[in-house]
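Is this the right way to post structure tokens for a design question? Let me know if I should format differently. Anyway, here goes:
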């Protein structure tokens, strides 16, 4: 929830003006700043759908990411959004801003090219030079202060990243923008290197021995860290013993040591297009804790006795030791599955391992069927991967297909995760009934969808002739969603319906309060299976170990804070991953400017229409102002734009043809132009009326930000392996379409200079951006740059 400031809800009194000597009290809230390149801001309040718009002159020098106290001076009425003014900067953001170093005499600036930072930063030239900085290099700086008397913010350089355009420079710039580390400090590496690799009698005490049990891993072909393995054994009674074995990171990484503190701070590994930024040093993630074949490894396991019909007879939890017999990649396991029987000609995979894969696949199919019958939701969105060469240059974009081998691993990871959660939530009874005396634990939770958004989906589906079933309960909603998507499959409107359905979903997070996982239809769920790359899994291992040893319940307050931190770190990592993908997609399109592609409408806002092209699904924006045949307005209720004169409509899912007009790699922007030749005549004239759009204004921008964001920043599923570990959408949730809040869906014009003096208080004009007149050769001062900025105008479009 948003926080009102002060005790019991502080208010802000506006002083007397020339027109009135009375004062008025305004409610105040604490929120986080999202800034536009024009200087105005939106204050985002936790737990509230509507943010607060603040004009540039009323920001009190607040910058993107800052935590501020905002007084709401005008409440939302109809189409008019909430407005306010910043009354206090509670905390400056510690995230760096990335820009280009510029030296003039003894002075130095970091010149901004960011969509969310319109002001250049004054920095120390001496400091920049000491870090190897030169004019024209990219660098990252944190803002330390911005006094009212100063024309620009002051900051310190935290790193010089290198020459713009070089792959390492740009990937490090993305990490720096999100405050993510891209290296370990030497003391952390050294501490990890000192951890003993010996597995002797002391290390084996209290562990169940699986070294002689058939065990194997299934991972992506390019995987380096193997953090889960499956063991398989036929039992005399006709049942199967299946073990899910997870690297025992918590045995090696002790609470409070330097490696643990670093992992805790990072929260998760980060997967950019061309690299992994691990949570743990290489000694741990790729060697000591990686379940490599033919090596003894310490593990934490869940072991199940299963009938051939996938009924669970027994469950066991504890520490183990394994020795993996075989390392599969997904394609290798898939070949065995597709063969459907043991292949006597296969001389690389032993017969018993082939049989184990086939049997486990049959069991996985049964688990999957049960899950969807129980109400799990299926969002089968295409997952696109960017292939890069050895220099990081994108050479192809292709769809990653999940098959049975992916689902096999996914289902057994889900089984382990939900079983561990049920063990603790039921007080050890494993009877499916939550205990009011359950000990503190870390859960992975997913709330039910928002009822209003489900209502919007029902209405939208109705425009295509679909009638959704009952949505009275969570299970009813899941059934109706799955039925709707199944009916629409392979039809033009399928993608549109999927997008709107995803918008209705909540976001999965970590919590010490168990509310179940709606998307997976599990009453109990946690993350147990990836401690190499997720810190919450390490916490789960530690808590489980303590409780198996009879320990008392741990501090709920502490784990509440840890869950909040882990959820925040996960979001940051996902945003960085999306930014790296977006950068590479725009780079991939640079040589395709001027070419035409077929596509479909993937989003609409009051300033543009987003289009995904085929076959790569790369999304760009068609600015409404560039559509020559008519003046188009945004019909938010029906997710479409409507021509004012012709009545022609474009809505989600509609097929269109576009031409690529620009690819701005620096700002990760793709501009498309609608190819209007050959468009069918509109069926009727005029729109539905009652909505505004076409021109972009600051006043209306908040709803535009929300509507573009609503493509789905939140992830949904928590299915383990299809997107497991390394690559694009890796993690336990099937990724929803990339969120738009942080995306560069707007102008390709660049800004610069010291901009406070040029910010406008009125609604931003539709087709203008600021640009600074910089004269690097003549050594123009910052104050002159500011004057030049305030006088300059440019054509382009605005964006958040």
């Amino acid at each position: 929830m948003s926080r009102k400031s002060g005790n019991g809800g502080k208010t802000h009194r506006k002083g007397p003006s020339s027109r009135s000597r009375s004062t008025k009290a305004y409610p105040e809230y604490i929120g986080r700043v999202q800034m536009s390149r024009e200087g105005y801001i939106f204050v985002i309040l936790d737990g509230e759908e509507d943010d607060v718009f603040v004009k540039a002159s009323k920001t009190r020098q607040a910058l993107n990411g800052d935590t501020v106290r905002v007084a709401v001076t005008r409440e939302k009425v109809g189409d008019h959004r909430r407005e306010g003014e910043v009354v206090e900067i509670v905390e400056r953001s510690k995230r760096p801003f990335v820009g280009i170093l510029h030296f003039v005499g003894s002075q130095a600036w970091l010149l901004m090219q960011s969509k969310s930072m319109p002001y250049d930063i004054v920095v120390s030239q001496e400091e920049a030079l000491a870090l190897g900085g030169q004019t024209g290099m990219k660098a990252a700086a944190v803002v330390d202060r911005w006094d009212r008397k100063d024309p620009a913010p002051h900051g310190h350089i935290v790193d010089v990243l290198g020459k713009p355009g070089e792959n390492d420079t740009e990937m490090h710039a993305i990490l720096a923008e999100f405050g993510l580390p891209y290296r370990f400090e030497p003391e952390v590496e050294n501490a990890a290197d000192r951890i003993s690799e010996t597995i002797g009698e002391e290390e084996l005490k209290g562990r169940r021995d699986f070294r002689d049990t058939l065990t194997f891993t299934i991972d992506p072909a390019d995987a380096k860290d193997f953090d889960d393995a499956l063991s398989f054994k036929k039992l005399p009674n006709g049942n199967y013993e299946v073990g899910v074995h997870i690297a025992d990171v918590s045995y090696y990484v002790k609470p409070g040591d330097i490696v643990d503190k670093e992992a805790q701070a990072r929260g998760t590994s980060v997967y950019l297009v061309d690299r992994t930024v691990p949570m743990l040093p290489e000694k741990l993630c790729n060697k000591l804790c990686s379940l490599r074949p033919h090596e003894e490894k310490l593990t934490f396991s869940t072991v199940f006795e299963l009938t051939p019909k996938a009924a669970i007879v027994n469950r066991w939890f504890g520490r183990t030791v394994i020795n993996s017999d075989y390392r599969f990649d997904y394609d290798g396991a898939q070949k065995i599955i597709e063969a459907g029987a043991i292949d006597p000609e296969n001389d690389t995979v032993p017969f018993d391992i082939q049989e184990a894969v086939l049997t486990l696949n049959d069991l996985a199919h049964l688990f999957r069927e049960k899950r969807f019958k129980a109400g799990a939701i299926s969002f089968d969105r295409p997952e696109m991967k960017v292939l890069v060469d050895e220099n990081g240059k994108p050479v192809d974009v292709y769809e990653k297909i999940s098959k049975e081998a992916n689902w096999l691993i996914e289902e057994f990871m889900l089984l382990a995760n939900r079983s561990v959660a049920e063990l603790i939530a039921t007080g050890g009874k494993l009877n499916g009934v939550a205990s009011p005396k359950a000990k503190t634990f870390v859960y992975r939770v997913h709330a039910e969808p928002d009822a209003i958004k489900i209502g919007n989906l029902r209405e939208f589906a109705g425009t295509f002739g679909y009638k959704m079933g009952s949505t009275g309960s969570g299970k009813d909603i899941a059934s109706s969603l799955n039925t709707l998507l199944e009916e629409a499959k392979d039809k033009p409107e399928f993608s549109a319906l999927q997008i709107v359905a995803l918008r209705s979903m909540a976001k999965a997070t970590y919590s010490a309060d168990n509310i179940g996982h709606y998307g997976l239809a599990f009453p109990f769920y946690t993350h147990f299976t990836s401690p190499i790359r997720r810190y919450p899994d390490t916490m789960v291992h530690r808590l489980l170990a303590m409780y198996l040893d009879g320990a008392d319940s741990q501090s709920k307050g502490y784990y509440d804070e840890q869950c909040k931190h882990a959820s925040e770190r996960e979001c940051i990592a996902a945003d960085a991953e999306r930014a790296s993908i977006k950068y590479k997609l725009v780079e991939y399109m640079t040589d395709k400017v001027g070419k035409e592609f077929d596509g479909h409408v993937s989003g609409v806002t009051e300033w543009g229409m987003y289009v995904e092209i085929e076959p790569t699904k790369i999304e760009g924006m068609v600015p409404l102002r560039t559509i020559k045949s008519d003046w188009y307005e945004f019909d938010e209720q029906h997710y479409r734009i409507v021509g004012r004169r012709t009545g022609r409509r474009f809505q989600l899912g509609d097929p269109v043809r576009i031409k690529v007009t620009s690819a701005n790699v620096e700002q990760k922007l793709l501009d498309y132009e609608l190819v209007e030749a050959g468009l069918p005549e509109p069926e009727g004239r005029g729109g539905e009326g009652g909505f505004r759009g076409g021109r972009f204004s600051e006043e209306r921008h908040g709803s535009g930000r929300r509507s573009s964001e609503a493509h789905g920043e939140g992830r949904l599923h928590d299915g383990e392996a299809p997107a497991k570990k390394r690559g694009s959408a890796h993690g336990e949730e099937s990724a929803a379409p990339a969120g738009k809040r942080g995306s560069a869906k707007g102008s390709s014009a660049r800004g610069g200079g010291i901009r406070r003096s040029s910010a406008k208080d009125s609604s931003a004009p539709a087709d203008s951006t600021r640009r600074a007149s910089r004269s690097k050769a003549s050594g123009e001062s910052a104050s002159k740059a500011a004057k030049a900025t305030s006088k300059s105008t440019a054509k382009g479009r605005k964006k958040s």
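Format looks fine. Someone answered above. Worth noting: Confidence is low (pLDDT under 50) at residues 1-9, 15-22, 685-717, 719-800. The CA atoms of residues 66 and 93 lie 5 Å apart.
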